Amino acid sequence: MSLDFTAIDFETANSSPASACSVGLVKVRAGRVVERASWFIRPPFGHDAFLEWNTRIHGIVAEDVVRAKTWEQQYPDIVAFAAGDVLVAHNARFDMGVIAGGCSATGIELSEHHSMCSLAVARKTYTLDSYRLPMAAMAAGFEDFQHHDAAADAEACAAIVVHAAQRHEAPTVEALGAATRVTINPVRIRAEKPRAANQPRLSNRPMIFAD
């Protein structure tokens, strides 16, 4: 089996996709976890307010990231860790939006990435009442992890994809995508809707977590 990919999970400080405050990364080679990494991220100015709603979910507060490196400093480490792998995330639209949002907000070039959504894979693999990450991970035999801890969530995501690939007898992420009809998509900067002159950059609306 040449099932190689990198699972990734972000937690955010607020509703801005540029407000990543932590990341978890898990590298899979031949269907086995071979490397793990996680760290705090200091969100860029203008995207760095910690909303109570988000903190209730992941437990991270502003003081935790004061000494952390910024997105500009850490994005190259994410790129290097992934080493060109397909990035797998549970509700990949959210996590890929964080990558694109961080690059857009800081003016750095977005590297070439492709992503697969483990949430979509789980829906084509299991019959569950809920496909949120804890339920899908349980179906894959990965239980009792700290949900909304970026490192733990990335590992749960990896477990889902490895288990699903075994169920579908898919030797690669590309074969798994074909078997489940889940597309592997390029990551792109999203066009932002223009804001009124008096409209604040950050919304008071909480970030919606679909995992």
Write structural notes for this entry.
The protein has a single domain, classed as Ribonuclease H-like superfamily/Ribonuclease H (Nucleotidyltransferase, domain 5, 2-Layer Sandwich), CATH 3.30.420.10. It has 211 residues and is of the alpha/beta class. It is globular, with a radius of gyration of 17 Å. A six-stranded mixed beta sheet has the order 3-2-1-4-5-6, with helices on both faces. The protein is built from eight helices and six strands. Helix 6 (133-139) crosses helix 7 (150-167). Helices cover 36% and strands 17% of the residues.
Q: Could you outline the blueprint of secondary structure elements for this entry?
A:
Layout: E1 5-12, E2 20-29, E3 32-40, H1 52-58, H2 62-65, H3 71-82, E4 87-89, H4 92-106, E5 114-117, H5 118-123, H6 133-139, H7 150-167, H8 173-180, E6 185-186
Parallel strand pairs: 1-4, 4-5
Antiparallel strand pairs: 1-2, 2-3, 5-6
**Overall pLDDT level:** 91
Helices, by number, come to: 8
The counted number of beta strands is: 6
Class of secondary structure makeup:
alpha/beta
Predict the CATH topology: Nucleotidyltransferase, domain 5
End-to-end gap:
28 Å
State the shape. globular
Question: Which class in CATH terms?
Answer: Alpha Beta
Q: Which regions are unreliable across 5 or more consecutive residues at pLDDT < 50?
A: 193-201, 203-210
Helix/strand order, N-terminal first: EEEHHHEHEHHHHE
The percent range for strand residues is 15-25%
Number of domains: 1
Please estimate the helix content.
Answer: 25-40%
CATH-defined superfamily: Ribonuclease H-like superfamily/Ribonuclease H
- Give Rg in angstroms: 17 Å
The main sheet orders its strands as: 3-2-1-4-5-6
Main sheet, how many strands, which sense, barrel?
Answer: 6 strands, mixed
Tell me which CATH architecture applies here. 2-Layer Sandwich
